[in-house]
Q: What sequence folds into this?
């Protein structure tokens, strides 16, 4: 086991800097990270996504907005191939991930570039924080090593670097279940970094957090977006949060894109036109207190 020490801190810092350069060099200006074309998906005949087309450039941070049931989670899950749409195409960095209901064989590699953060964190509670982060690397190692969770020292150091970046290095050897919600969500973000994800999809990442933890998680996502050019697509219920953290937003209603543009233009009038009375819920719901002080 690697001990936490000043020495380790220096190694971790060096790894972080190499990692940042690696990610930055991967980034190509104005290369689409995600291209969605005419995507349609229904559950038992009821449409969840209707001819959704959307391009997200590398390094963008985009919010998905919409009332409950508008299709935000379904859209995010089709972007990493967790869900198949009947019609339409999803491309990741110009390579097709799914097209007209078919998932491509290269998708394992493609999917490793896409990290996913869930509202309920989805950590393995009985494992340590460090092991949860190392899990992010599983798709890139042999099945023997992954079965027995055999990780090299270099891999552990990278995982510790990821934990350092999200601000919870000192928690590395605790069981994940013992961490607060905000800390657990930061472990989930560290797992995405370990995975080498270039794109992070976050489905209501702050909906289960107290206001202060929510703010810290959003600021971490913004920082990673800005310093590493990580592409972030996040669904958020709270329009205040969207206005504060995301320059671009996409508003869905009944699986149809109703707005795609600068968040500054998604004012209360616009929301009322799209959602009618339901707009009030989007504006008032949750965490508004962060911005009132
Ligand atoms: N696994 C499923 N089986 C059946 N219907 C589903 C399933 N997943 C989603 N749906 C339906 O698809 C539509 C879109 O749901 P989705 O979960 O994508 O909405 P959402 O915008 O994420 O809502 P919320 O804000 O409540 O999370 C809804 O009508 C929902 O009932
Ligand atoms: Mg949802």
A:
């Amino acid at each position: 086991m690697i001990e936490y020490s000043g020495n380790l801190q220096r190694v971790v810092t060096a790894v972080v800097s190499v990692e940042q350069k690696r990610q930055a060099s991967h980034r190509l200006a104005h290369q689409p990270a995600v291209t969605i074309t005419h995507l349609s998906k229904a559950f038992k005949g009821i449409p969840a996504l209707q001819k959704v087309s959307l391009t997200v450039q590398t390094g963008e941070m985009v919010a998905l907005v919409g009332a409950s049931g508008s299709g935000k989670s379904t859209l995010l899950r089709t972007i990493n191939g967790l869900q198949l749409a009947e019609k339409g195409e999803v491309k990741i960095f110009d390579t097709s991930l799914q097209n007209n209901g078919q998932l491509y064989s290269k998708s394992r590699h493609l999917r490793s570039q896409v990290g996913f953060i869930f509202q309920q964190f989805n950590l393995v509670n009985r494992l340590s924080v460090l092991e949860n982060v190392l899990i992010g690397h599983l798709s890139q190692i042999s099945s023997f090593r992954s079965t027995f969770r055999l990780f090299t020292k270099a891999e552990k150091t990278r995982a510790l670097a990821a934990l350092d970046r999200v601000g919870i290095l000192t928690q590395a050897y605790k069981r994940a279940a013992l961490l607060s919600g905000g800390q657990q969500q930061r472990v989930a973000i560290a797992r995405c970094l370990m995975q080498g994800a270039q794109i992070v999809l976050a489905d209501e990442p702050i909906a289960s957090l107290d206001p202060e933890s929510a703010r810290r998680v959003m600021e971490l996502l913004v920082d990673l977006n800005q310093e590493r050019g990580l592409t972030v697509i996040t669904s958020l219920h709270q329009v205040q949060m969207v206005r504060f953290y995301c320059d671009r937003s996409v508003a869905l209603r009944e699986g149809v894109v109703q707005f795609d543009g600068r968040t500054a233009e998604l004012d209360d009038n616009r929301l009322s036109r799209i959602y009618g009375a339901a707009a009030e819920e989007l504006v008032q719901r949750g965490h508004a207190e962060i911005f009132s002080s």
